[in-house]
Structures
1.
Amino acid sequence: MKYVVCAVMLLSFEISYSQDSTPVADTVGRSLLQEVVVHAYEQNRALADVPVAIGVVTTAEWNRYDKMSIVPAMNSVPGVRMEERSPGSYRLSFRGSTLRSPFGVRNVKVYLDGFPFTDPGGNTYLTQLAPFDMYSLELIKGPAGSLYGAATGGALLIKSRPDSWQPGFTAEYSYGTFNTNNVNAQVRLGNEQGGNIINYSHQTSNGYRDHTNLRRDIITWESMLKNTDRQTLSTYAFYGDLYYQTPGALTLTEYNANPAQSRPAVGTTPSADQAQAAVYQKTFMAGITNTYRISQKFQNSTNFYAAYTNYINPTFRNYEFRSEPHFGGRTVFNYSLDNLHFSFGGEAQKGFFQTQDYGNSNGAPDTLQTNDNINTWTYTIFAQADVFFGKGWQVSAGLSYNDAFVGIDRISVPGFVPRNKNFTNELAPRLDLSKKITPNILLYASISKGFSPPAVAEILPSTGSINTDLQPENGVSYESGLKSSFFHQRLYVEVIAFYFELQKAIVVRKDSSNADYYTNAGSTTQKGIESQVSFQLLPSATGLINSARIWASYTLDNFTYGDFKKDAVSYDGDHLPGVADNTFTGGVDLNSRPGFFLHLNYYYSDKMPLNDANTDYAAAYQLVGGRLGYATQVKKLNLNVFTGVNNAFNAKYSLGNDINAAGGRYYNAAATAAYYIGITIGYNPVKNN
């Protein structure tokens, strides 16, 4: 009951402007708020009408913050936690799924313009994309396997451009604290019948801590061609070149003495500088999508991609080289009648990876330790039906069949017998029941089952051991929610409660040298409430303020171990490490008629346990930031100048803690107050009204 009371008291949300929406005009004819339309689960409907827990991030959110990082915008969504241990080193979780992610993005299936962006080994290099490469995001929280394959955490759908083609160009430059530079240039050619977009992003930063330099260069090319009224061909290609230093985690004593320091040498373990710990990563991806309208009621979209990643990672323990070519595709058929929508299709991926680990001698590869060839593939077959009954009732049902395989051949060991593991016959169903109580209020309940096989990096961790005994985690999620939209979409309120029982949970452990390994940790019980509210104020026809909006979100989590023992010690009932019980974020967006704008934002995270025994905690923290600027338009030229601050009150906190770290080496200090200033110039051949 206390969770319901807290949710009602702290109702909150953040709602986004959508690229596919219809503006709602006030009495004096101004466009006040665009109705959010989501595409997840092939719904293509207003957010308030979709019976699923979905967060949305668009350019409205990017524009509130410094575009050097996507972290603040992602963390404005309830139930989502994104961390950045150092510039460029992301970690993402939906509803606490970082238990198995010491770094990177795992257990969240990611798609880019419909292409599978998560590789067949279960890893996602989200660091290879900048905010400029992500026009909008849809974050599906909870098991989404009925349509999006294996992941108990959820799915992330990325769109790189708006649906409407807008020729022109945009250039942006910003400079900030820690010698941070952010450059982006985009050229858009063509029209609605065919066109090209070329985008280039360049980012550099020295970082707050020692040994946290970053350099990221990304170039993308997109094209679209409407062959006929029925067929559209589109292509997407990108090349990313990323380098960032990894400073390593600190003990509490080191963190309190100097949070900006990198990990010092301890015994035979070198310092971050001595090891020259860093990530060098180059990724190329290209794909093509064919969308064909077979009839007015029947449509198909099919894509195919190929990708290659070269990954070099000198660490405190070793020096790793990874070569990861892979390819795959996805096809979706949609059939619609007046009261029925049916979707079905499949997805498949294949990877041929090679991993070589050497000793690290002062930042140079030394003696070969292991050399592994990795063969991996995965496929999913899915179907979903949405039935619309009278009087506001709707039933949605989906089911997928999933199969995955990992084979490892250690060619550095003569006579080695390859270790193969097949994860097969995993069904992932989902059932939703919803009712429109009034034209503005939707009530829904859902049950879904998810499963997630171990990633290649979990079967073959940095210790060099091969653990094909690791089992997939699986669980059933129960969810209910209320969504409402009033006053012509100016007021949006959402409250969602969930209960998730996870079996054979995969969690990260640290050995005595602080190297990662993984194990199945029995069961966990994850329950919580996610709430959101946004209100668009109605300005007067002649006032100074053109638009004003207040928004907020609140998440209440209670995640505990159910049945888990380690070395005869029971952790039953202990809170899952890395998950805060309470998080809150909110802000104000103001736009004036003369062109000045102001965005203020606030974020609070409760304390969180750092180990299974709950003996060590990361302290709670609060962040305050803002962005102030001026925007104007002269004929077809748009000009935007801005300045802003992150962590305005210089809060000391750790972001991206190392969970269950040996020797209490948990802490990765986040940046202190950081200021920035920038300018954006855009040209549109068609003058905006």
Note: The mean pLDDT is 88.
2.
Amino acid sequence: MVQLSGKKIFNGIAIGKIKFYARTENKVTREKIEDTAAEFARYEAARDTAIEQLNELYEKAVATVGEDNAEIFNVHAMMLEDDDYNDSIQNIINTQGVNAEYAVAVTGDNFADMFANMDDDYFKARSADVKDISERVVRVLTGAEDNNEIGDEPVIIVADDLAPSETVQMDKSKLLSFVTQQGSANSHTAILARTMGIPALIGVEIDASWNGKIGIVDGYEGKFIVDPEMEILQGYFKKKEADDEQKKLLLELKGKENVTKSGQKINLYANIGSPNDLGSVLENDAGGIGLFRSEFLYLESSTYPTEEEQFAAYKKVVETMGGRKVIIRTLDIGADKQVDYFDLDKEENPALGFRAIRICLTRPEIFRTQLRALYRASAYGNLAIMYPMIISLEEVQEIKAISKSVREELKAEGIAIGDNVEEGIMIETPAAVIIADELAKEVDFFSVGTNDLTQYTLAIDRQNAKLDRFYNAHHPAILKMLKMIADSAHKAGIWAGICGELGADTELTQYFLEIGMDELSVSPGCILPVRKLVREAE
């Protein structure tokens, strides 16, 4: 048995026979040519034929992976018409007096190297595209056949690399997954894999001797297992069965309303940690984002992220969600999320210490920078702001004063902001629950952070594994608090939701409906299972 790691491109489990895909090499020899004009005309004819092939591939791809992803073949056709590319081929033919195949191969290598050495990841990924179009033209010139056959049985394709044209021409019904040594997460092949819903890994050290052996691709953990032991194989068959069930849910429930049989509606939103999670949000048909953890910007940086860096991230999220609500939680550093450059003192009990809104109100320059970025991004979509770790009415009033000041500052600078940006608070302390009726008069919504609310209510450190037997998220005190929160919100005319882990607890979905929760925000993969229960509820 061999187990390797790679970079995951798409989630899922694939189990099947490995097919080692060896691309047919286009052997190009350098030949002297007397009539260079005729040779360039020969190239132009081959190029035109290649463009016709790409147009046919575009039509096929539209039918299988959609118009947006098929666009790569139009791009390839345009690359073949690029003046710099064609001038290079003509120059090599004319000055060196060589055959078209050689001129195309050299130009392809030169342009591919040029792209590969660029700093931008997008342009690096175009290196494979230049190779692909050049090899296509060489095949036309030499009369070589495309070799995209993968056989009659479903297989896991293992290859050094795969060009987009190779991937799209493969019989999708026979393609379980692909594993490559080269490639990037930004390549068109990777994009096609995501669109086709095929688990895939890149950056795996491959071996031709695997051909014909049984393989397992774990797209969730980025693992590739060759010739697995029986116990491991059986375990993955069970995982795949659960994975297939989830996909059935997706097919059955995508696009359907979150409404009970009696007509009660509830919003199902997603919790995410960075813009990289947006694909999963859309794939699982979330109605919006109920918790965007903005601290990822701080955790991934070696210094305080600038206003522009934050603005770019928030703008990307709200634009991508296309008008659906995006609730962004302000900085929640501290406790179990420590950042060196904040220079926070060591605390005996950090969960009860200097964290979240307490940092923001004590270091207003950090808070104002984030609020400026948030309000600027609000002009590009449906953005709401949520403040964590609230314990008093005075905190909310201070936050609102700072928020108002930031809005006025931006307007004075002529910077557009969204209309009526909702401001809400997280209810995650017993203090906030007790005064929820007063807090509700000051904000637009409540979102319950059940993880911390349970921790503080039960006086149990949720990071302490020794206390697991005492940690009970279904404790009657927690459930009563949730009802108090919903009642206080509705009495004041605002909405209430849950963004903690408890929101995805399907044993409590019925209870959340009964107490009138308006929204549940859960991990993207939990959206459809919860939707299923909502639609089955009376």
Note: The chain has three domains: 1-18+150-162+175-233, 24-142, 262-536.
3.
Amino acid sequence: MSEEREQEAAARSAADVAAMLIELGRAVKACHFYASDHPARKATLERSFRAFESTLARAGALELDVSAGALHVGGGDPIGRGSLDELVRALIERGVRCLRFEPGLEHDAFVQLVAVLTLDPDELGDAGGVKGALAAAGAGVRVNEPGTEEAAVADAVDAEVASASPVPAEPAADDDRDLPAPKVQTTDADPLTRLDGLLHEKATEVEDGTLAPQAAPEPGADLVACLRSLDECRDEARYAELLQRVAVSLDELEGPSAGDEPYRAILVLCSHAMEGSRSERQRLLAEEALFHVAAGPRLADLVLRACADGTAGSVRATQILLHLGAHAVPHLLDALLAADDPERRGRLNAVVIAMGEKTAPVLKEALDVNDPQRARLAARLAGELQNPELITYLRGILREAEAPDELQREVAKALARIGNAAATQVLIESLSHPSADVAAGVAHSMGGVANAKVVEGLVGALRRALRDDELELARESIRALGRVGRAEAVPTLAAILERRSWIGRKRLRELKLAAAAALGRLPGDEAHQILERCAQARGDAQVRRAAQTALASRP
């Protein structure tokens, strides 16, 4: 060993070298899985480069030779046997016999080296080999340099590699072990990604007579292996076994340390459940497993991802929630109740609405007067969904004596949004609600339902309100008649304008002002003529000005 190499070995331990090379292997894996512009790929490359940069700056150049199916420093013992097999294989396949990293390693040179180790060996040969591909990439990486000891014995190395223990062959697709990273992602499930950290290992090395402890396997490694095998598996019996292993691996990953692994599993299972090329049996198995896995904290995480700001991942998470349907609705309701951000509420609301009829069973259950806040949310969603199936349950809340007024007013709005004959009939019945506040709220809601039946109900409510001195119900009935916009209401509103006395002058004025504004919204010559007379009549100046304003605003 040269003096330079002896100094190098003294400054850098075998464990340091193994850690650097594991970072290089991790970067290669990331480039296999991530698109070139993916943030996780860039982050992994940056982290691996920094690990090389700092160690090279501290301990000087690192020269490695590839022989006997392993990596060596200065002809010493193999570095990272087992944990670096994939990296060794990639180097050998591309003809790398000696690899030297200089302290001035440039970022572009490191990134290009990683890219070279992901290229197909044949394509790399057409591009002039590793040296040709790295020639203009930047300083700091030297490969198979002439004159080095390794280049001089290249032929001997080749013979040694051929006769030595071979690099382990890639396992079959259904093997229980972790699989090497495929060059083509086999599903469109984004999270067979983020490999940085999944296969993190530290080599067991002998240093100064002390055996360094080998780190435990990274959490999630077995799950990733199962998912890869599952993705390639077409045998139904084997597929069922792998699903069981996935469930066990996920149970072992509960808690903050689980990271992205549960989401990765959910994406793969959902993809399989909808994948037309799979057998019906496998799709059913995947569907069953998906509903089992996507629950509790994992479902909560899925909802958070669906609400992420403008990412492809949020679209995929939303698609999974839509596939889960009613299974996901209770948690979506919880998230809506807890959401403070309007944008987040809007996204959650959109997901629930997109589920359509799937939400009905959950909304029925949520329409419970014992939980008014959740029931109000369910009533609002029922109105936005315009699902007639929920009318009976909404009517029950309006008839429930213990239901809060605020909840009952929300129910009235929902019925008005549904707006069919059955919903209209419930609203008309509720105009006689014992609570004057609720009855007024019902009248207000009915302004959005434009049919003759609604006019008839509001006219009847107005007459009762005038008789019973219920100012709020009378005012809301008048305003609602204006919003309905049907000519049938003209005589009733004209009678209000022509009324001479009713309890108190101030109250009567409020109703006349409301009637003038309502007539301004109604079609036909009769409404126009009534307003003209009122605008010219002597008497209350405020009512006269209201009639003039209504005339000016008529279409």
Note: Confidence is low (pLDDT under 50) at residues 1-10, 147-217.
